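User: My instructor asked us to take a sequence, write out its structure as tokens, and then describe one feature of it. I'm not sure where to start. Here is the sequence I was given:
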Amino acid sequence: MGASKYSSPTHQSISLPPSKTQFLSGEVIPVSGAVVDGELYWLVDGNEVPSWDKTLTTTGQHTIQAGWRLQAIGANGSIRSFSGLSSTKATVSVYSNQKPTITSFSPTAPVILQRTGVPVIFSLQASSQNTLETTKWNIFSEGSSIRETLAASISHQSWPPGLYTVQAEVKDTYNQSTKQEWTVKIIDPSISITYPQNGAKFPTKQVPKPVIVTKDISSYTMALNGTLISDTFDWNSLGAGSYTLSVVGSYLTTGKTTPEKTSEQKITFSVAQSTPPKFEVSGISNNDRLIAGERYNFIASGEANETFQWYIDNQLTAQGEAYSFTPSASQKDITIMVRGQRNSITVDKHFNVRVIDPISVSFFLKDWLLKTSIHRAYRSRCSMRAGISTRWFGG
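Assistant: Let's start with the prediction itself. The structure tokens for your sequence are:
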């Protein structure tokens, strides 16, 4: 037999995607090839894929190359095989359209309660068929971002008391993302005894109930000379003697199985059988309404040798029998306290009053009167700025 019929294909061609390089998993990749007098086959990542349907399901970067092969009869009658590869390769990226999946996160609770100054550590794990970028963290306070960073986890300690949102965003290289959020409430637990003052002295049968002010605590305990007492304790049952009142608050935070406690706060006071101060206060009554900007004169009249101190919202403002007071519109609801002392015994009288701003009230009355059919004489009585020069009492 003579020379072999064929030594190579009579014609071969391959067409690779000219510009598009990213394809969805399972999407047909538009590559094509042709071989005359031979067989066309495809190699993906250097490996032949028999009967390739031109789709890839494994995400990531891949190379595509075409090959040809044929067989012919040589001059000696033997079967000879010939093959070759295209001179060009296509490099494509295959991606999934599935968003990243969060597999775990910490803390696991969606709402976090923590005390100020204690760090809160956040972390997150995610999976994706695509390459993941570094997690983006954002901390919001009252709708505004106060911290933004890229990290696998974050630890935040600079928490003033308030409500926060912590947001973690996991994104793949194809801009597909998923988010995890936590609501964080930062508390500053405290407890204090605002009344009576430390060292106060009271007559028997006239011991006032203490005022306990709390913040961000769930409960508290109260002890008198080391013995626990309740809020219903009868303070007038105390006999003459010295006493120490102490309070401790309890609060819960995320991750703790038992309540945490505040530091102990305490005061000392005494009860005596000496004659207590007796006095009356003129010029003011409980639940009075005072006009902002006007001057009021109050008088404390004692029975014998009493001394007096005047307090506005527990702040000492004056001493003596007479007190002149001009309220401001910003004060709204206030407590005026008169403290009488005699024989080192203390008696306090409290007056809760409201401050009225004539300008703001007159605007309200004007709008109201325009909508009603009230007699003109009544309107004139309601003209506050022009006609009222005395205090309001009662409702």
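For the description part of your assignment, you could build on this observation: DSSP finds three helices and 32 strands in the chain. Try explaining in your own words what that tells you about the chain.
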